[in-house]
## 1
Amino acid sequence: MKLYIKNMVCDRCKTAVKSAFLELGFSPVSVTLGEVEIASPSITVAQSDKLKSALQQLGFELLEDRKKQIVAQIKATIVELVHYATEPLKINLSDYLSNKLDTEYSTLSAIFSENEPLTIEKFIIKQKIEKAKELLTYGEKSLSEIAFLLNYSSVAHLSAQFKKNTGQTTSAFKQSKLAGRKTLDKF
């Protein structure tokens, strides 16, 4: 049985969620961003309530509504691609999401926009800008390396989106030392 968890955005989240499941007597078969698979074909209402409570204490939410599950899957997929992928995506993101979630992109887009205050495209841009902020803060990569890593067509395109979303240039951001980064679960 697959259970969908909101606000899982990193490896520490996966570890925390897995621990919560283990403490409640569940043996997760797999734990990925936004999703936990357990061997049991179902859980009781009492188990579900305990699980919800344990997850809430950790800042997560058990999602039971199908549309919210899809939104969580979309977000987890995008976070994984933007923040943890080691190579740029070779196919169109809409095709990738459709294939990964086995649903037409138009349906995914409609569900996402219906349940979130922004579109999938704007969510992707916001994630890319947060990743760019992180990489700029570390100072280990050039702006052109960051643009390539984040699959931008050019440094100018990254710079324009960065300024539009943050109100400052990439150079000003680097010099300010006021990172102004957001946690990944706050989108």
Note: Residues 66-84 form the longest helix (19 residues).
## 2
Amino acid sequence: MEISGDRTALVLVDIQNDFLTDGGKYFVMIEELMKKNNVNANLETLLKAAKEHGYPVFMSPHYFFPHDHKGKTHLSPMEDLALHGGVVARASPLHTDDLPGSGADIPDRFKSYMEDENTTVVSRHVTYAPTSDLAYLLRRRKIETVIMAGPVANLCLEDHMRNLIRDGFETVMVRDAVAAAANEEGSGLDAAMINWRFMAGAVWTTEETVRRMAEAAKATA
């Protein structure tokens, strides 16, 4: 698989404190893999490469608002756990007073890369799929290929991948910039890797991804 320097974007899912930082409400379920895969450092490497070579960045956040507790049906086991456990909880959809430094906020180490006009934070997703404007905003930038990473490989990230494939995008999954929880059936990360090898256009390491990003940007220039 090849990427184009002017038709490719970096898409990050759930780049938020509750997933990525010590003490985060979801981090406790993925801490071992976060550290084993050096996920935060690899995410930062991807962001640095995107900024250096001019690739747009899109981030899909996961938020829960007070009205989400009024639902009459269950979301799914893991989403119910996150909702009732206060993961990425927000006080209101109308203001961000409680956001800075909260579990729903972006980690400080990434803010310098993401607070610019070439980074788009799309509307929130509910459950795992991108129930948001992600595909629309990618189309506005004439993006055809997405490089994807995030801490919840087999749930939110994979469902974003599946939906973007359905919408006609090519996908590159970065295998060491991800983590996942496990249950009695096995590892969520193993499940993701098996599916990605069947479904994604490519599954690369961070090192290979940034090398290809640099090569594609040079070729486009």
Note: The mean pLDDT is 95.
## 3
Amino acid sequence: MARVLVAYASLTGNTEEMAELIVEGIRQAGGEAVLKSVTECNAIEIKSYEGVLLGAYTWGDGELPDEALDFYEEMDELDLTAMKSAVFGSGDTGYAIYCGAVDVIEERLKERGAVILQDSLKIEYGPNAAEKEACRQFGRQFIEACMAVT
């Protein structure tokens, strides 16, 4: 069974809700998920898992939120070669760069050698009923891909 870290940054609860739903999907598909806020863990913890899902809301004009900066910077010290990963987050289409923090995190994962198993999941504000199921499906697909990739 694959063990996955789901770490997120959330201010209003939208990205936290996404993370919780993604964890539901992982568990529905038979995976093991550990859910943590990025303020409750260090990036080095990624190395203790077979996969990692990172989530954040986007602040301002496509930037990482302040509470995610330490975690993000700690990733600079990690060799994540072959680490199975994906990224999710919430944003606001009213800004020029929609869910820019998601793209920033994904780029950092790639720079550190991680393998992105699926397209990022981006949701405006909080998930509606259909998007809640999309979050669960995102988790199911991730864990299935984790178990398929050796």
Note: The helical segments are 14-28, 66-74, 100-111, 129-148.
